[in-house]
Design a protein that fits this description.
The complex is a heterodimer. Chain A is an alpha/beta fold. Chain A contains 12 helices and 18 strands. In chain A, β13, α7 and β14 form a beta-alpha-beta unit. By secondary structure, chain B is an alpha+beta fold. Classes of the chains: A alpha/beta, B alpha+beta. The interface between A and B is medium-sized, with 18 and 17 residues.
Chain lengths: ~375, ~300
Amino acid sequence: MNAAISEILIEDSIQDHPWTKAAIQAQTRHQGFTPTLSVIAEKQKVEGGKQTLLLQKSRGELFHPCPGTQGAVCCNYFVFDFLSGCPFHCSYCYLNAYLSQTSLSMQINLEDPVGRLVERFRREPQHLFRVGTGEIADSLALPASDPLNRYLVETFANEPNTQLELKTKSSRIDPLLDLNPKGRVVISWSMSPPSLSQVEEQDTATPYERLQAARKVYACGYRVGFHLDPLLFAHPDWTCWERDYEELLQMIFQAVPPQAIAWISLGGLRLIKGLRESMMKNFPDSLLAYAEMLPGSDGKLRYPKPIRKRMFQTVKNMIDEMTQEKAPPVYLCMENREVWRGSFGNTPEQKSNLRPLFNHALPKTIALLP
Amino acid sequence: MLAQERHLSFVDRAEFDRQVDRHLLAFSFPLEHAMLRESIARCGLAQPLLVCRNVLVCGHRRLFALTKHPEITKIPVLSLSGLTLPEAFELALAENTATRTLNLLERARAIACLSRLQVSENEMAQTWLPRLGSKPSNVLQAQYRDLLRLNEDWQIWVAQENPHLKTALLLAGLDRDTQASLFSITSQFHFGINRLDEILQNLKMIAKRETRSIQAILEEIPLQNAEAIRSLIHRRAFPTLTGMEEKFALASKNLALPSSIDLRPPQHFEGDRLDIHFQFGSPDELKKAAQKLLDSAEKSDLKDLLELL
């Protein structure tokens, strides 16, 4: 796993901020050498690849509802985007076509944005706020973000109507292990079968390493989540596909008990405009871009509906069989009601273990954990 | 403005052929130009050939047309002096682009000319591409070069049909045997640009997915007519979608709705509603259509249709 940063650019207005120094120290300590440091003007255009990190002053609102997608069932998720970009090289990652720059960036002065967040949490105590930082970034891959991740964990741990989700494909959990998340922090991993991960998720921790990390954080009081999203269908051979995903699920449930799992999400591969071409060009060994995919009403390419339904149904059945009555909540990401019905036989509101995720009510099972 | 002196003379054709390099700055393509040939047959060369430092600068098509007229033994030549070859090339480009847009192959050939003149890649991209009518871009410059991997037949097709660069690049990415097979099919069945583009995209997907060559896939396709070929390749690229479309067509047919009632699935079957459109011109026609629809609601075929959603 390689997340080395060779250059850190620091906006002049936050160069003396304690978290700027802490971020540089954390990055240096992790990689064993100090990146080149340069102070730049605010909003200066930055060019550079994934080895360049921009530390910037926070501007605008970082907290907002997940945009979801047109026609999809919404799971009432919020995002807190203080990180942008990812050091990994996943062939299918929508950031490859979504972000205008490949360099990484982190907003430093989070006191005010987080202060506003806490005010909102306390103003609406009957609301469950599920908040993630991994919408346009990997939450834990970048060592420089350790100090701010610790700050977020400590903050959310004290807010009873919240769940902070740190989503990653890394295994860098050690910096968080000494904290007490009080059951209000979910560390979650995107998971793909090892054979696919090896080709499609370059530089990430292996699925096995991710699960070892999951086991560790669970032992330290965190809940864990898994995102089988995107479900990848590289070749039209259902037998192989089912075997791959069955093995993956077995690995997951051997690593952590079902009751440790806050949720498992399922989502079919979705390609935003320009991503298919970028995959063909930049990931010639990947077959994913050549699968049968069709544009939906939101303009994204997806596997045809019968394939998606079969994938979701198959994986859901496997989870149910492996976990029996301890089955964790399983939900679909970015899918409409009719795919929910076709895959699970019902919609999220009809499923008792999903109602909390989808109707904003404060769930006893989640919010009142240790 | 480029400083230059011009001197007009009539040169013996054999002498011209011996002394003048006609390839170094040649970018006009294709050279065959029927109207020019006829014009020369009627009136001779109306414009002199432009030569600089013993290199033909303008008049490659005219010279080519002259091969059909061995009886013309003296040709008018305007010799330029005071210019470097890149300057002469700029002049040739200016003369051409003032009256027409260069086709993709001419741009590719112009890039090749510049390479022969030792122009750096960056200068080509930033300075010369705009003179060829393109935006300045290193990527584009490399893509134009790739077009020269097309065989002669495809080069002429691209020059004449003017497809999108993406389509031309797809063709250029094929090996020579596959290019030849595909050209034979294209010329036999007269695929238009859009159809060829669709076929190419689909062939590329199938080949990658099935880890087979496009050539091997083409050999398996029965060559009946253009639409049948397109349809077979489409079906193989989109097996699930075409399967749903066929089921939908069959179940719709079984509903036996009159032709005035048009029943449609949502696009790509993404959605949970069928769409019905019908026309009527009298209360009677409306009643009949409504009755047919009511009848269809009782049929199991309607359930089959709805299950596709």
